[in-house]
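Let's sit down with a protein and look at its sequence and fold side by side. Which protein we use is up to you, so please pick one and set it down. Label the sequence line and the structure token line clearly, so we can match residues to local backbone shapes. Go ahead whenever you are ready, and we will take it from there:

***
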Amino acid sequence: FYSVNIQDATAAAHIIILKIVQNTGTVINLETRVYEDNEAIIADLKENKLDIIAVLSEDLPELMRKNVLDPFLIEIGKKDVYEHFVLCTRTDRQGSGLESLAGRTLTISSSVDSDLPIYWLSLLLDEQSLPNAEFFFSKIDKIQRPEQAIMRVFFSKSNACLVPRQTYQVLGEMNPQIAREMIVIQESPGFINGVICLSWTLTELKRRSTIEETLLNMKREAGGRQMMDLFKIHDFLPYDEKYLHDTFDLITRYRALKQAR
């Protein structure tokens, strides 16, 4: 869930699970947790300590190989099923291609979310026979909010930023000066950041159906809509592997590149 901090993510997840519990009429010990690694996720799933989990796309292949979870729903944005990232700079900066950013500063918006934009940037640099990002840029700063990353470039505090396309477009619509004075150098293909999964031990069809119905209808309720707005989620779709084809391809190519280096 892009640009959401751990505290907000935990609180929102608690609201979601509470709503599901109310709808199923199940009495359980309600707990939310943010995991730091896949090993902890696998251990808790095997010990039946988890029913529902939001998984980053880059972690999903490994978890699926362990046969401990079932991909269930994907999140989609307002205008597109996929998340796109853009590399932006100011229009008054000399040079227009990616190579013109050599030795410059880059700001990346990053929080508890996916490393997919960094994967994409690494592959982009390699495709153009340019050095790794840590050597290509003079400095890389990571900050939580993409709006702040964009404004740093706008006010010439950073030479370029890597942010979600949706945020860049919204900010440009709100402030036309940003649209006039900033330009997109590169735009990524569309990716899926994360997938909501169920434990494979959750086999009761009625319970699974209630969970799906609760999530799919969440946008129709005021509290649910507010939570989805926080995460910049427009809706959910039933999981289909076709939506993650390009995302998994990106992950595979990045890991091959990393091993080759």
Summary: Residues 193 and 245 are 12 Å apart (CA to CA).
